[in-house]
Amino acid sequence: MNPSLDDAGKLLLRVTLGVLVLLHGIAKIFGGPAFVIGLLEKLGLPGELGYAVFIGEGIAPLLMIFGAFTRIAALLVAANMVVAVLLVHVDKLLVLDKTGGWALELEGMFFLTALAVALLGPGRYSIDGR
């Protein structure tokens, strides 16, 4: 395989995932993490853990976009998706929607794409690759 195409594919994958997850983080920045904090407290967990959403949906996606600490950032995004599913969507884990798609397509795509980025690494077009 052409190394340039391989690196371009890695760039496209990590920037796409980073931007799409970051949009959720921006919503949390403007709306606050109260929803997440409330869910954690309802489970008897410290509400302060809810602020970690800014890491998983803000800092980690930015790191992926720029390709800095990419593998760690991707694993943080993957972990964020696991927590999101467990806190909010666990009842949809084995559910298909009315069109036959998995009810957790977005979360699943984010999780698996983050794992792919963690496995593939950032590529040459990144801070890590320099």
What is the count of helical runs? 5
Largest sheet entry: none
Q: What average pLDDT do the residues reach?
A: 95
Low-confidence stretches: none
Calculate Rg over CA atoms: 16 Å
- Which overall shape is indicated by the principal axes computed on the Cα atoms? globular
Counting structural domains, the number is 1
Tell me the distance between the termini.
21 Å
SS elements, strand count: 0
For this structure, the quaternary state is single chain
SSE run: HHHHH
Structural class: mainly alpha
What is the percentage of strand-forming residues? under 5%
Helix content: 55-70%
What descriptors fit this protein?
single chain, 130 residues, mainly alpha, globular
Describe this structure in words.
The chain has helices at residues 3-31, 34-42, 53-66, 70-89, 105-120. It has 130 residues and is mainly α. It has one domain. Helix 1 (3-31) crosses helix 5 (105-120) and helix 3 (53-66) packs antiparallel against helix 4. The mean pLDDT is 95.
What is this entry, summarized?
The chain is mainly α and 130 residues long. It has helices spanning 3-31, 34-42, 53-66, 70-89, 105-120.
Layout of helices and strands:
Elements: H1 3-31, H2 34-42, H3 53-66, H4 70-89, H5 105-120
Helix pairs in contact: 1-3, 1-5, 3-4, 4-5
